[in-house]
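Hey Z.,

So I finally got round to the protoporphyrin IX containing FE thing we talked about over coffee. Here's the setup:
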Amino acid sequence: MYGVISILHAVSWSIVFGYYFFWGVILAIARGKKDLDVKIENEFMKGTLNVLPPVMAVSWIVALATGVWKTATIVRGSWSIMYSTTWGWLVTVGFAATIAAILVGVTQMIPTCKAILAYGRGETLFKRLATLERINFSLVIVIMVVMLLAWAY
Ligand code: HEM
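And the result:
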């Protein structure tokens, strides 16, 4: 069972990380080199908004649920490990950052995506979405660093 949960964790975190790598690294380089027109990017983003939010929401929730399951299997009831060892602190920081990112998604991003789909073309909504993406991109970097450190520890 632990193997299945680990595969689900790996698939879900890969989807989350893959999206942010594309948005935060590949598109950022294209924007910096002026190879990407903001208007075209906004149109492109709008075209993904019926698909992207549900796929990301499911991936984040599966990463959270399988992560908690993996943690519970590893600690076997000794939850004090979470604050008395470096491994525990790393996973705890990853957990807190995951909750923060999901809250940003549910309370801010989903309403912004809905507003873009409903009213369309205003630059302000796209700027707001980009700021929220930046926040969650930073959280994903933190989560990846602490998770990989915990795994290697
Ligand atoms: C989107 C959020 C998350 C990302 C990007 C992520 C990423 C990762 C990565 C890259 C690994 C190492 C490779 C692997 O074992 O698959 C890992 C392992 C792990 N993750 Fe996550 N994770 C996330 C959420 C969580 C959450 C919320 C928890 C727990 C509360 C968690 C608990 C764990 C545990 C216990 C391991 C195994 C560490 C070990 O083997 O020592 N993860 N995660």
